[in-house]
């Protein structure tokens, strides 16, 4: 009897690799993507299982680096059973092709950070839900003038740099991104400190001018949080943080952008895409109302009213996150920009992986990477199944 090879072969499929959709089989073993030449010429092995994909599209799993919650769960508010809430969202995300995400906490008081943050752990994905890459902390070290939906009761300056952040947040062990305003006192020292810990720094909720932004990038920041929203508008004499899209700094600046048909005009999406195509990252910025009907929800200490799918701070017309899942953002983005399908898919997979420095394991289908991928209808982009580490973790009902 022939020994099992542990190989799974996805046959008759179109896969996104290296910026192109190509007709090629995908080989998986031990949760990784395998080079078939090794299988054919060295091992001379055959697949234990062959799956006929019927000409469907296989794309890298999507990575959402800014998501505040969904399905009734708010990561910044629900402190009674944090783990249960996070896992509920992680499970629901699978149906949208999201294989990894960064649960995002907005500006909160110290007690909330103490009760919630230690309970959101970096966790591998599986049938229980998408991989938790680490927490994205958005605030409270932001500008009062550009607070958006953040409570001004808790907004403060990072006067003592990294020490100020640790006093508020506590342990940073499971943090992957911090959004702050670079013009604040102590912000540049905080950026240097966070970067030394391997934590990515995003610039946002800010009145920073371009010079402030460029100083922050030189100190280690490499991201902008929800471009165009909660920052100074573009001006030809000083383009502000938006100007970082055309900066002359040496390293790539990445930027999250919300393509829900509400936050960002299609023309603004096209401008961003054409100015700095390599840095564009689609984010959902979804709130607790994601996946649920209109009603009243929360984002941190703020109440949210959802009307016709638009989330506002109660009693105002201030937008506070979206109700749109990442797979739908991809579709809306492609329609708005008329970009290639390959590019649209990479803005939610390869680009966020590069921004986080994990592209060697996530965000693409290169040999040796984690076998996190989505099987989609190539015409409608409907998610048909989601796979993490080579295991089917979600399959759409027919």
TrEMBL record:
Tagged with keyword Metal-binding: yes
Q: Which residues bind substrate?
A: 149, 229-230, 237, 263, 319-321
SUPFAM superfamilies the record matches: Composite domain of metallo-dependent hydrolases, Metallo-dependent hydrolases
Q: Which segment of the chain is annotated as a signal peptide?
A: none
What does it catalyze?
N-acetyl-D-glucosamine 6-phosphate + H2O = D-glucosamine 6-phosphate + acetate
- Please name the Pfam families in this protein's record: Amidohydro_1 (PF01979)
Extract the InterPro entries matched here.
Answer: Amidohydro-rel (IPR006680), GlcNAc_6-P_deAcase (IPR003764), Metal-dep_hydrolase_composite (IPR011059), Metal_Hydrolase (IPR032466)
GO terms (molecular function) for this protein are: metal ion binding; N-acetylglucosamine-6-phosphate deacetylase activity
The entry's active site is: 285 (proton donor/acceptor)
Give start and end of each Amidohydrolase-related domain. Answer: 58-391
Co-factor binding details: Binds 1 divalent metal cation per subunit.
Q: Which cofactor does it need?
A: a divalent metal cation
Q: Which UniProt keywords apply?
A: Carbohydrate metabolism, Hydrolase, Metal-binding
- Supply the EC number(s): 3.5.1.25
Q: Name one GO biological process term.
A: N-acetylneuraminate catabolic process
Classification via NCBIfam families: nagA (TIGR00221)
| PANTHER family reported for this sequence | N-ACETYLGLUCOSAMINE-6-PHOSPHATE DEACETYLASE (PTHR11113:SF14)
Give the family this protein belongs to, as stated in its UniProt record. Answer: Belongs to the metallo-dependent hydrolases superfamily. NagA family.
Q: What is the protein name stated in its UniProt record?
A: N-acetylglucosamine-6-phosphate deacetylase
Species the sequence originates in? Papilio polytes
């Amino acid at each position: 009897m022939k020994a099992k090879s542990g190989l799974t072969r996805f046959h008759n499929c179109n896969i996104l690799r290296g910026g192109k959709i190509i007709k090629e089989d995908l080989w998986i073993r031990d949760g990784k993507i395998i080079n078939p030449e090794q299988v054919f010429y060295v091992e001379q092995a055959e697949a234990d299982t062959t799956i006929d994909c019927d000409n469907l599209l296989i794309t890298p799993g999507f990575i959402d680096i800014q998501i505040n919650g969904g399905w009734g769960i708010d990561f910044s508010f629900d402190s009674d059973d944090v783990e249960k809430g996070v896992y509920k969202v992680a499970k629901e995300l699978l149906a949208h092709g999201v294989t990894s995400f960064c649960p995002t906490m907005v500006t909160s008081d110290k007690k909330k950070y103490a009760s919630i943050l230690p309970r959101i752990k970096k966790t591998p994905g599986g049938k229980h839900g998408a991989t938790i890459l680490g927490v994205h902390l958005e605030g409270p070290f932001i500008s009062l003038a550009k607070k958006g939906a953040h409570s001004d009761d808790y907004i403060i300056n990072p006067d003592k740099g990294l020490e100020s952040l640790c006093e508020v947040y506590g342990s940073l062990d499971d943090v992957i991104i911090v959004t702050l305003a670079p013009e604040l006192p102590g912000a540049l020292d905080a950026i240097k400190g966070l970067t030394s810990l391997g934590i990515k720094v995003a610039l946002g909720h800010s009145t920073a001018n371009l010079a402030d932004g460029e100083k922050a990038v030189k100190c280690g920041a490499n991201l902008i949080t929800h471009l165009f929203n909660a920052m100074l508008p573009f001006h030809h004499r000083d383009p502000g943080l938006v100007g970082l899209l055309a900066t002359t700094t040496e390293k790539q600046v990445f930027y999250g952008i919300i393509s829900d048909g509400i936050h960002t005009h299609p023309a603004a999406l096209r401008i961003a895409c054409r100015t700095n195509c390599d840095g564009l990252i689609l984010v959902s910025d979804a709130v607790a109302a994601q996946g649920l009907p209109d009603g009243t929800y929360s984002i941190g200490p703020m109440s949210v009213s959802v009307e016709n799918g638009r989330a506002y701070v109660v009693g105002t017309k201030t937008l506070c996150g979206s109700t749109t899942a990442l797979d739908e953002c991809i579709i809306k983005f492609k329609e708005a920009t008329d970009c290639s399908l390959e590019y649209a898919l990479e803005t939610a997979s390869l680009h966020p992986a590069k921004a986080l420095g994990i592209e060697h394991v996530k965000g693409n289908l290169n040999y040796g990477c984690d076998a996190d991928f989505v099987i989609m209808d190539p015409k409608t982009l409907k998610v048909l199944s989601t796979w993490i580490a080579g295991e089917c973790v979600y399959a759409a009902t027919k």
